[in-house]
Design brief:
20 helices; mainly alpha
Length: 466
């Protein structure tokens, strides 16, 4: 909980800063230019998964389980990632015209290639901090990086009103974040050249490739919609979809924080073969994830249009249906993120590559079928279909490895969600303003959980009090 609290504090501040940039960019640039920037950034994000190749997750696990080999694993991973990042950045620049039919997006890729390199190396530093279970370091560095991006981004938009200036601001902020990371972890980064061990490269790649493939498929699942919208429609549709998607991706931070903080513990319990305690941790964590996922999902469904118009303006009202569909993914992503980290901790990831591959294939096929007919709503529907498939496979797969039972923990949580939904629908029917409607729903949800003494809520409150 301590580690999650640190990461949550860092991510809440960072995501708020990044959200300011997103809202300002969408309003100042307009749907078409905002769509071009979002498309280029999605390509870069997708390539980051390729350059990682599972090394960050592997590094965290190995440094926890084999601390005596920390310097060798870190040095070998660092030099390999530098070489891989440089290769992919060069390929991105050379092939930019083949990657997109949107000229404005193609012109941004050479600049965003630097963002790709800086973020790739900074993520390695985060993996190191996480393996040390010093999430306060990762939280501080995340805030510093996003504060730099936000400050530079707002200044660029205010002065130049262009996607080119915004891309330069992202590159500057990411570079400053990398510099801060190197300084904060400098004691662990000394004598890297002397610690490099070429003989470790083969076992690292052999062990990491399932992590890497899962990361690539996961990145593909997150970015397929925008990429395919860019192919099948145009920059404006990409901008509208990005407007619906960005708030949802901001809400993905909670399961990432919880699962990231749990990962060292899950890895340790796996190494100790302590499946009884692993099962208990998994049950409580999954119940907590679902408890946290329901309120934003229900608020997003009921209040999609007023939320979009309030933050982005009436020009983006057409994004509301896609937003209402995409917000449902929270119910799937929150628990499945924890399940995915459990699979990694148990070193069983290679057995589930087919599941993620099938989910990705469903996403691509559904996009081809639904986007031409339904536009951005079709892309959102394709994401829901893919999430359903992957979530089902992950639940079945983990239950085969660790016996756990979640149903008894969900009765009160689902009842609270149903009461919250009914309260918000009633408020909308009575023409209540949307902030009041959301507040009424949240109060109803919290009241039901409190009155019925929901154990997961009580555990969270008691732990944070301590």
């Amino acid at each position: 909980v301590k580690d999650t609290a640190w990461l949550a504090a860092g991510q809440v501040v960072s995501r708020a800063l990044r959200a300011i940039v997103v809202i300002a960019a969408a309003r100042i640039l307009g749907a078409a230019s905002w769509g071009a920037f979002s498309y280029a950034l999605s390509l870069v994000t997708f390539l980051t998964a390729f350059s990682d190749f599972g090394i960050n997750a592997l590094l965290t696990r190995q440094l926890v389980q084999q601390p005596q080999e920390r310097r060798k694993y870190l040095a070998t991973s660092l030099y390999f990632k530098i070489a891989l990042a440089a290769l992919f950045a060069f390929s991105l620049v050379i092939a930019r015209d083949a990657l997109t039919s949107i000229p404005e997006a193609a012109s941004l890729l050479p600049i965003l290639a630097f963002v790709f390199i800086f973020d790739t190396l900074r993520d390695l530093g985060s993996a190191l901090a996480r393996s040390l279970e010093r999430m306060e370091i990762e939280a501080a560095l995340t805030v510093i990086t996003n504060a730099c991006i936000a400050a530079a981004g707002i200044a660029a938009l205010a002065l130049f009103h262009s996607t080119y200036a915004l891309a330069l601001a992202y590159a500057l902020g990411s570079a400053l974040g990398l510099a801060a990371t190197a300084y904060a972890l400098r004691s662990n980064l000394r004598h890297m050249s002397a610690s490099f061990d070429l003989s470790l490269l083969k076992p690292i790649l052999t062990t990491a490739w399932p992590f890497g493939l899962l990361g690539i498929l996961g990145s593909l699942a997150l970015n397929t919609d925008i990429v395919m919208l860019g192919w099948l429609t145009g920059a404006r549709e990409v901008g509208l979809y990005a407007t619906a998607q960005k708030p949802i991706q901001l809400l993905y931070v909670l399961p990432a924080l919880l699962s990231g903080s749990l990962f060292p513990l899950l890895s340790r319990l796996s190494a100790e073969k302590n499946l009884t305690r692993l099962s208990a941790v998994l049950e409580k964590s999954l119940a907590a994830a679902i408890l946290c996922a329901l309120p934003p999902a229900l608020i997003g469904i009921v209040l999609a249009e007023p939320l979009i118009v309030f933050f982005f303006g009436s020009a983006y009202a057409a994004s509301a249906p896609a937003f209402a569909i995409l917000v449902l993914t929270l119910v799937f992503v929150y628990p499945s993120t924890i399940l995915g980290h459990t699979i990694f901790a148990l070193n069983q990831q290679k057995h589930f590559l087919w599941y993620v591959g099938i989910s990705t294939a469903v996403n691509i096929a559904a996009n081809f079928l639904l986007i031409p007919r339904f536009g951005i709503a079709g892309a959102a529907g394709a994401t829901i279909a893919a999430q359903l498939v992957s979530n089902l496979f992950f639940w079945v797969a983990v239950k085969r490895l660790v016996h756990f039972s979640l149903a008894p923990r969900l009765a009160t949580i689902l009842l609270a969600g149903a009461c919250m939904l009914a309260a918000m629908i009633t408020a909308v029917y009575l023409n209540a303003v949307f902030p009041l409607t959301a507040a009424i729903g949240l109060l109803m949800y919290a009241a039901i959980l409190y009155v019925r003494r929901e154990p997961v809520l009580s555990l969270l409150i008691q732990t944070f009090k301590k």
